[in-house]
Amino acid sequence: MGQGFMFVGTQQRITLNNTHYHVDMVFYNKLLRAYVLIELKTSKLMPEAVGQINMYLNYYACEMNDEFDNPPIGIILCTDKDAVTAEYALGGLQNTVFASRYVSHVPAKEQLVQQVESVLRDMPAIALQ
């Protein structure tokens, strides 16, 4: 994951009104002083996944963060995403949520660099703030 990341756990349970939910993966980044919640989806990006992780982020901000923590960050890893759905599903959220397509194999270094540069070039200005 990179420098400063600490693994908290998988399938971290959140209980709201006697209903149990599970965050797929939770990390804490010491440098960012923020929880990083990751949801893994075996389908394309759906608006429901955005609502789900937004709920988890709100819970972590209220119940898990201490006074020195920054707001948690959400990442949705899915098999596919289209720019229009991502723009409308993620737009206007107060929480920081990113959606990205995952692959089942590691591409060549040059291909990874091209993909990262493409994402950074296409990223809305609001996500860079």
Your description of this structure?
- The chain is α/β, with parallel strands linked by helices.
- It has three helices and five strands.
- The chain has a five-stranded mixed β-sheet, with helices on one face.
- The radius of gyration is 15 Å and the shape is globular.
- 20% of the residues are buried.
Which helices and strands occur, and which strands form pairs?
Blueprint: E1 5-16, E2 19-29, E3 34-40, H1 47-64, E4 73-78, H2 83-90, E5 96-101, H3 109-122
Parallel strand pairs: 3-4, 4-5
Antiparallel strand pairs: 1-2, 2-3
Characteristic terms for this protein:
3 helices, single chain, 5 strands, alpha/beta, disordered C terminus, 129 residues
Helix percentage range: 25-40%
Shape annotation: globular
Radius of gyration: 15 Å
**Low-confidence blocks of residues:** 125-129
Strand content: 25-35%
Order of strands side by side in the largest beta sheet? 1-2-3-4-5
SS-based class = alpha/beta
Instruction: Give me the number of helical elements.
Output: 3
What number is the mean pLDDT? 82
The description of the largest β-sheet is: 5 strands, mixed
Number of strands: 5
Distance between the termini: 21 Å
**SSE order, as H and E?**
EEEHEHEH
